[in-house]
Amino acid sequence: QGYRRVWAGLRGLKLAFYRRPQDHEPLELLDLGELVTVRAEDGVLILRLRGQEVTMKMESWETQEMWRGFILTMAKMKMPRDLALLPGHTFQLLQALREERECRDISVTAATPVVPSCFFQVTRAEAELLLERSAGRGNLLLRPGGHGQGVSVTTRQELDGTAVLKHYRVKREPQGYLIDLETPHRCSSLAEVAQFFVRRSEGSLRPLEPEYSSQL
């Protein structure tokens, strides 16, 4: 009583609530930059922000603990010491923290490229698995190139019911990046590399969003 069944998605410091998992426009947004405390009490998670208090009820204790970990980690930029998570969940949380630190890095010099949110520190095999598991959040990501050389682009598309995975090499140049295609294409930034593939596919490719979500 008094609860609405919604989906929630965490994007950095924004906690968004959706009516359905495929929705793009949220019902409500919470700014975790205003977070004061998070506490688990009587089977619910209570978020106290400046000016309001939000109570979230999950389907299981494990999901509640996972959300408490993500919310505190994104708000404080460090992983809480008192979390009771399985090793796989702990790895997922640490990966999310690493990606968020990269997104928030404001000490970028002119010699260091700005890393877009669709860049993931994963191997080729991990990239394929990540795109498979993240269907609906995007089907294109950037990752470190093989043997530590440059950057690679991995895409995943469904064609006639079959998943088609492709990998593209992107070479670093003094003035930007060169996409290794039959007709090579130069870009000035990694973000432009991602957008090139979006335009080339006429929108069928979409950069993977670093969002961590579940049903509440």
TrEMBL record:
Q: Does the keyword Amino-acid biosynthesis apply?
A: no
Does the keyword Cell division feature in the UniProt annotation? Answer: no
Q: Which residues form a coiled coil?
A: none
Q: Which residues form the SH2 domain?
A: 122-216
User: Gene name?
Assistant: Stap2
Q: Which GO terms describe its molecular function?
A: signaling adaptor activity
Keywords on this record?
A: SH2 domain
Q: Which InterPro entries match?
A: PH-like_dom_sf, SH2, SH2_dom_sf, STAP1/STAP2
Q: Which domain of life is it from?
A: Eukaryota
What name appears for this protein in its UniProt entry?
Answer: STAP2 protein
